[in-house]
Amino acid sequence: MLRNGFYWRNREMRQHVRVIDGEVAPTIVLKNATYLNTYTKQWLKAVIWIYEDRIVYVGNQMPANLHNAEIVDCKGKYIVPGYVEPHAHPFQLYNPEQLALHAAKTGTTTLINDNLLWLFMLDKKKAFSILEEFSKHPVSMYWWARFDPQTELQGEKELDLFQTEDVLAWIKHPAVLQGGELTSWPDLLAGDDILLYWIQETKNQRKPVEGHFPGASERTLTKMKLLGVNADHESISGEEVMRRLRLGYHVGLRHSSIRPDLPKLIEEILAAGLTTFENVSFTTDGATPSFYEAGLINQCIEIAIEKGIPVEEAYLMGSYYAAKHLRMEEQLGSIAPGRFAHINILPEKHIPKPESVLAKGKWIVKGGEQQKIKPHIQWQAYQIKPLDLDWELSNKELQFSVPIGLEMANDVIMTPYPIEVDITVEELPAETTDAFLLLLDRNGKWRVNTTLRGFTNQLGAIASSYSVSGDFIFIGKRKSDILLAGKRLKELGGGIVIVHQGKVLLEIPLALGGMMFAGEMDELIGKEKELKQILQSFGYPFSDPVYTIFFLSSTHLPYIRITPLGLMDVKKKELLFPATMC
Hints:
- The protein is an alpha/beta fold.
- It has two domains: 80-371, Metal-dependent hydrolases (TIM Barrel, Alpha-Beta Barrel), CATH 3.20.20.140; 395-581, no CATH class.
- It is 27% helix and 26% strand.
- Strands 1, 2, 3, 4, 5, 14, 15, 16 and 17 form a nine-stranded mixed sheet that branches. Strands 18, 19, 20, 21, 22, 23, 24, 25 and 29 form a nine-stranded mixed sheet that branches. A five-stranded parallel sheet has the order 6-7-8-9-10.
- β6, α2 and β7 form a beta-alpha-beta unit.
- The termini are far apart.
- Residues 435-573 form the Adenine deaminase C-terminal domain.
- It holds the Pfam family Adenine_deam_C.
């Protein structure tokens, strides 16, 4: 077993050397392998020896000791490193373990994950314990240390989510590879020295800091570089990619459900003359479930190859360049001695979806057949279970009177608008797209009431315990349907419920803390597709309703948000209407 779950112990490394000396047999031998050598960018012939979870030899020799070794003939196949997702949000309805298992089926064998959910759901001791459990997974699961919650919280100081002692403990943890993502960068520019201290301590640990700078000017990017930020994944044009590269950033090219930008970004950086890609990687940035039906980073590599990135570079952008940026190149991202045995076996060089996948030396897919990998995270041991709610949603919480609502500019951008319809009624008229919007404290102690324009022109109600703040969101035209959706949400112990004219149309139970689905990804993908279909039939005009719901409270996006403190003008950091105590 790895030391602390993350590094090999001395006796294990001695055992690996004994394999070379013939004293111990490898567990798997890949012969007649044509593999991509990361360091020469050549396709070379080799025999690859694997002992348990580690590559121990890459060369021309067969092992002298083959006792019980599995020998796989890879003639006619092409072998590349397992792909790396450097920026995962592993809780977009799915849970981290099921996302990892699903990702590995198409070759993404390493994920670097947002730790935000653990900050909300677990104390530090339990959080670090679950990180160690994840380290035993065949897929390499690493994390980043957040510096901010992405929303305004009621009594944030009392919650102790971002105390310096705890932030530093996360930064120093061996499973944590970077700090960020830095959504609170305006505070840093405004003089927040505690935030700057956390960044500097991250750099002292020789770990990079990930930014979040959509639309940032050269001046802002330069300032953030001076303050210690290493990388950013928010480019929405080739010009923005090039600007970041010229300033020394590592750039993540994003291809996600809410911003499927990769084809355009690649076309534009190639047109700009970019010929070197060592500081570029890919990310799917926490896409919603159905976007992952065809996989994760394999999709990005496929697009890159189709758009003219050299094949070798495309694979390295999906593996080694991300690992090197995260200073994990001695463990990940290449077929070489000493690396984790994350290996994808491809039918052709230009087809990045593998027909066989090894993750830490275990077969995830073998010859096109998925292997059964049993989940091992015991969620109940961490008290991550259905919500036990001791309150009932009532007409008392459905009192609407504020004059300003949120209008959808797209899936996630909200602008303020003056409410012109009568919102004291039981049902809002179908000829408008105004709907009731309620954010309700998970413990039933406070509420924020307003309207949302542009989400639906008909739907009775949708209720969700899935939100960036972990509180409950209700959207709909009809108060009676909102009440029924709230009742079902309580009975489920959390989830998403759609109701229309007194009938429940869809339920997605989120039995893991009201935030995550407990079942497999394939089932969840089907449910999310159904959710989209229903909402679009009721007038939802955009592509990603799950992110609309999730980000309603998110203060890293403009212009107006419904937060636990109340309605907020994000740019001015001004509270327009405070929350009401229940």
